[in-house]
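Section: Multi-chain targets

For targets with more than one molecule, the full set of components is provided together so that the structure can be written out for the assembly as a whole rather than chain by chain. Components appear in the order listed by the source. The example entry contains four components.
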Amino acid sequence: MNINSQFVVATHIMALLAGHKLYMPEYTYVNSEMIAESVNTNPVVIRRILSKLRDADLVVSKSGPNGGSEIARQPSKIKLSEIYEAVDDKGTLFHMHYGQPNRFCLIGGHIQESLKETLENAEESVKKVLSKKSLLQIANDILERAGIDTVQPSEEISKKLRLMKQDYENSKLELQT
Amino acid sequence: MNINSQFVVATHIMALLAGHKLYMPEYTYVNSEMIAESVNTNPVVIRRILSKLRDADLVVSKSGPNGGSEIARQPSKIKLSEIYEAVDDKGTLFHMHYGQPNRFCLIGGHIQESLKETLENAEESVKKVLSKKSLLQIANDILERAGIDTVQPSEEISKKLRLMKQDYENSKLELQT
DNA sequence: CTTATTTGTAATTATAATTGTTACAGATTT
DNA sequence: AAATCTGTAACAATTATAATTACAAATAAG
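Its structure, encoded as tokens over all components, is:
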């Protein structure tokens, strides 16, 4: 996973937590193992990303039985750019790391500084695009794609989601036997 | 080198060829070994990037003695976005490649499609920023940073550059002995 | 037309970055 | 006290990328 897939995984996590917050209020804390199964990876990988999301005040975690993580704010108030910035710890989408160019070379001696500003502008524009999309928009879009009409009363959505969750857990049990 | 450093290296190459085209017209073909020394890497690495630049009609290459590559168009007519697109063969700055998310999961099943559009918008905005900068602007900026006043007649610049080239080659000879 | 030079690319090795895994202390609930 | 879960370190495995070696094909110059 590079920065990009990390962003996608982080958004996956956030969307999952958003779903719980919005439609399963009795179960807002989701543990890393559940998330890992959803993403199809290892719980520690998830916890590492959660750690970054926590630093960015996007989630809150709790240890102990029935612990896990929950979303820290309303999904409508969370912009994708915040998720992006949370996982982008290097600070540069365009990370320049080719070994020192020849110092005698006219071009090599200055190209990095010369490109720096342009690349920073590029990254800014990426963040701007991402800031125009909220987590709620993504969550609703996902539900729609899953065939769930988000215009209907949320209680009905909750029921459907609980049913799907049940289905999933049953199928897991079948796999084990 | 990732896509980003490849872009930086490709721009380095282009700026070098631009310099030769603009100020050393008697020597527009530069071979991969020279370029490699300037970038401080292996000639084959350079030839691979040149190959992409060639596919994008940004350079022309010639084999045999005194061969090498030259810039295919006026630096003022080349936008950085063209260089970016030339090396970005995967087509996506935000390449999603985390293993299949759990198909039973509501989120995992749809998040990739859901994010796709936003990520494509982000990449478009990057290209737009890069399209606003020409290779000539970069080349001039580099020369200025190197202390060469690009407002003076180009013949004087040519002299200075030839002198610097000489210096560089002398220093190489010294290193060998 | 032979020799030297340079490209173009395949094949391989080396290196670096990332992910996955194991392990365990610390926190929290029951 | 026992069980569950987080947080993180340490290490192994995997993957991606770059570097290197090698050599056929093209071209230029004598």
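Chain B touches chain A through 60 residues (CB under 8 Å).
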